Amino acid sequence: MEVRTELISDLREKFFKKLNDQGPPDPKGFHPMDIARITESNDWLRRFLEHNESNVQESLNMLWETCVWRTKFGINEITEENVERDYLESGLCFIHGKDRDGKIMFVIRCKLYTKGSKDFNELQKVVVYWFERLERETNGNQISLFFDMTDTSILNLDMEFIRYMIGLCKNYYPNFLNLIIIYEMPWILNAAYKVINSWLPPKAITKIQFVHKSYVQEFVDPNDILISWGGNNDYTFKFVSEVQNNTDTTMNGKLDNKKVHFAEGSPITEQSPSIIGDQTNEEELLSIEPKTIRFNKTGNEIAGTITLKNITADKPLSYKIKTTSPEKFRVRPSSGVLLPQEQRAVSVVLQPGYNVRGLLHNDRFLVMALPLKDASPSAQELVALWKSETAAEQYRLRCCDGETENFEVHKSNDLSSGISDNGRTVDTLFYKISQLKESNTKLHNDIIFLKHLIMFSIIMGILMAVMIVSFLRIDIQNSVNGDSCHMTHGTEVFN
What we know:
Low-confidence stretches: 246-274, 407-427, 491-495
Structural class: alpha+beta
Helix content: 40-55%
Mean pLDDT: 79
Oligomer: single chain
């Protein structure tokens, strides 16, 4: 359906009128990037109108709720640096190939996930990360969801997860869905998908295609059919970071190529707060020692320490530290102001219940810095600054087990080239152990399910046998009674 230009203008005007009359529901307001998108992007507004068949009021309601959700969920701040890294690298979901209509496919390998095996909030963030990345890479073009259900069982079906993904396309990503391709779905899950159909709007139900290996080429570009789907494409998933656009790393008209920034997520506004200072392209602001956080046990705590130093001669700095796993670490202090040449020790404490060796592959820390004009800004001014500005410098820090590292150094003092290899071997070993634990959990769940299935089959068999015996007894009894009646009548005739 072609959307008229005047409807787009009408939708934009109604949105800003509502915003002026009512104000945003959150005191923080809508995100500046979303407001800029509404102001400048006809394509985004057109999608809302296409999704709602050119109904301006319904499109306005959806646009408003989308902006509310994006602010509440922090959509514009989600990057590969602050989502669970092992979820990205596991291959549970990824971008691959195109469907029959030339639309990029978002593949979900259902057998790699069982309900409760992953933190659901982190899983939601990973899906949003991929959706936002797809929006950028396709310029908002439609995508297809490809549910690869090869080798799945009832244990791999998480209705909440599927409902969440459908809700994203239904409520917050307008006209984003081309097809829902469900590949090799086991018959045992048919009943569950009848429930899923009830969650979809009528026009979305027609987008669902149940596909088997014998005719997958009718729905997927033949060149993109994986070997596991019966094709010749030998693609093996490996997570690759998104290619950054230079416009995403600009701040106040200046391009900073030295440091790595959050991927396109940090908000950039046209009018910067007055407390932010100036910085030349070649000037460094902050030094960090060491570049790797080494965790050691001190008393009852497992902690590491880094030292931040403002290396400028005349600029106060605001710094802020983020981690990919805030529930696992306590950073003290996680933010603050550093005067010129001032340095500060920051402690990173591992929360009780977590094993440091199991965290090394997945957890990262991001240290950000911004120059200030005022050496004593208020807390409110700092909060506003970090919401509205992209960091001038960013440093990514890794983690390691300091005790293991010290042991390896002591053990191999003369073999420095072997230290890193041993460290990687230890890390790999712990990673393999975690994989074995996950596989063992899945196997245990499968065994429990099979036991229940066998017990159910036995009970049903017994009930069927009892019913058959009962029917046979009734039939025999009826036959005996019939013969008795016949003999009685015969006797009377004879007499």
